[in-house]
Amino acid sequence: MALRIARTLYLVRKLLLVGAGMAAASGLVNPPRSLAQSADANPAQNISAQVQRDNIEQTMASFLAAFANRDLPAFSEFFAEDATMFFPPSATGSPSRRVEGKTEIRRAFTEFYDRLGLGRTTGRQIQPQGLLIQRYDSFAVVTFHLGSDSTRGRRSFVLRRTGSEWKVVHLHASDSPI
């Protein structure tokens, strides 16, 4: 019975996303593991797991929207105080070593944007490809690709749940020629 409820919830969600034309763009074309593979789990746990997955997806969507538009105050708020980050090698002039702490991450982006003369913008979007969310209690790992015909960007985020919020505790950005 629990599996039937979980699959029904998944199918309804997928239909809603497909109807809105969002499934392919958001990478949500595969069933969440917590729903599709839990035959003997409690239905309330399945719904709770789905809510947590939705919260993680919403956190990532909000972060990426702010990041794409270089809204430094907005996207900085998604980092935990003890966050760490590796910039991609293609970000010319960015730190080549690990950046530690929310304040230092913000400073690195400020210097990077200033050096390149980049200011805040609007209307830009980042479209993750192959979005995968792996949730582990109060942590989650989110990975996806960005891409063009010549370069594939890889992004890995580790998020930690603090209260009702998910905060980025690590961001690793790298590029790979295709």
Fold and architecture overview:
It is a single chain. The chain has a six-stranded mixed beta sheet. The chain has six helices and six strands; from the N terminus they run H-H-H-H-H-E-E-H-E-E-E-E. It is globular and about 50 Å long. It has helices at 2-19, 23-26, 33-36, 43-68, 72-76, 102-116, and strands at residues 79-86, 99-100, 129-136, 139-147, 151-162, 165-177. Residues 1-40 have low confidence and may be disordered. The protein has a single domain (2-177), classed as Nuclear Transport Factor 2, Chain: A. The chain has 178 residues and is an alpha+beta fold.
Shape: globular
Give the total of domains: 1
Low-confidence stretches: 1-40
Which class best fits the helix and strand makeup?
alpha+beta
Fraction in helix = 40-55%
What's the end-to-end separation, in Å? 45 Å
Main pleated sheet: 6 strands, mixed
Secondary structure blueprint with pairings:
Blueprint (H helix, E strand, L loop, with lengths): L1 H18 L3 H4 L6 H4 L6 H26 L3 H5 L2 E8 L12 E2 L1 H15 L12 E8 L2 E9 L3 E12 L2 E13 L1
Parallel strand pairs: 1-6
Antiparallel strand pairs: 1-2, 3-4, 4-5, 5-6
